[in-house]
Amino acid sequence: MEINLVSDTVTKPTQDMLRAMFRAEVGDDVYKQDPTVIELESRVAEMFGMEAGLFFPSGTMANQTAIKLHTQPGEQLIADKYAHVYNYEGGGASFNSGVSCCLIDGNRGMITAEQVAASINDPEFYHSPLTSLVCVENTTNKGGGACYDFEEFRKIRKVCNANNLKFHLDGARIWNALIATNDNPTEYGKVFDTISVCLSKGLGAPIGSVLLSDKATIHRALRIRKILGGGMRQVGYLAAAGIYAMENNFNKLPEDHRRAKELGAVLEKLNWVAKVEPVETNILIFSIQSNINEAVLMSKLKQKGISISAMGHGKLRIVTHLDYREVMHTYVLETLEKMIL
Ligand SMILES: *Cc1c(COP(=O)(O)O)cnc(C)c1O
């Protein structure tokens, strides 16, 4: 049994999803003539209380487009030090938009309105970059799947309004946050200028993200997506996977969360584990005792058919997902419990 817990992006389309893809009605989406893409874009927009959506091949391109929409070269965005837009998008913020990042030392990838307020450069002080954008993640990736208290978003929005800043949500795992917090998704549309959501993480589609905003902003985003090479033709086949994923897989996320919590509970009892970070959703980060060799642990797990990822400094990461089934879960729990290091 091969069990891949490295990421929730490793899932493969099921027969039913593939059938939905093959049945899709398509057209040339560069001319906005693909009805399936239009349906996906409007469904996601409606769900999050936004006017319009735009389909992207990746979350990275959707985030990079948002940064480009909200900034001018030389300006600065504010984000947590763990932010995907800063750490994992190949330096795109500086490459595509010519902006620098002011990084906040937040809590598990989450920042507060107070921290944002303290990080804004005085716009009259022309020696410093002009602060123009705040980016947050929900759930946080490197922060271990942590979820914001929605009230903090409202507070950050106020700070943005008072300082003429735009507010972007990297919602690659927003679905997991909605399940964990019971937040009403339409509230998100009231607080953020733009939101990116991924269909290829917890929802299990093979590809795709959607950027959400008001109509005028999405119209501008169309040009940026074109510049970045993200204009695609009969892409309704892929959008159909996204629609299928929203309809059928969103409701399965609680299982991923339960399994991650159960794995965390088992790890906490093991003597070679130093610390298990709180498990809120489908990401579990834990650290091992300093006398334990990370590479040895990883290879022992690998021999048992289990892959997880190392984050460096003795920290390891497990991510549960749609293709991690109950039989596998039982086996992983048993294997961990019996593991001697
Ligand atoms: C996965 C992820 C993205 C987008 O990644 P792509 O691989 O480009 O789709 C963006 N932000 C966060 C927090 C992510 O975890």
TrEMBL record:
CDD domains: TA_like (cd06502). SUPFAM superfamilies: PLP-dependent transferases. Transmembrane segments: none annotated. One of its GO terms (cellular component) is cytosol. InterPro entries: ArAA_b-elim_lyase/Thr_aldolase, Low_specificity_L-TA-like, PyrdxlP-dep_Trfase, PyrdxlP-dep_Trfase_major, PyrdxlP-dep_Trfase_small. It comes from the Bacteria. Residues 4-288 form the Aromatic amino acid beta-eliminating lyase/threonine aldolase domain. GO terms for biological process: glycine biosynthetic process; L-threonine catabolic process. Its cofactor is pyridoxal 5'-phosphate. Keywords: Lyase, Pyridoxal phosphate. The modification N6-(pyridoxal phosphate)lysine is found at K201. Pfam families: Beta_elim_lyase. GO terms for molecular function: L-allo-threonine aldolase activity. Belongs to the threonine aldolase family. This is Threonine aldolase. It comes from Flavobacterium cellulosilyticum. The lineage of its organism: Bacteria, Pseudomonadati, Bacteroidota, Flavobacteriia, Flavobacteriales.
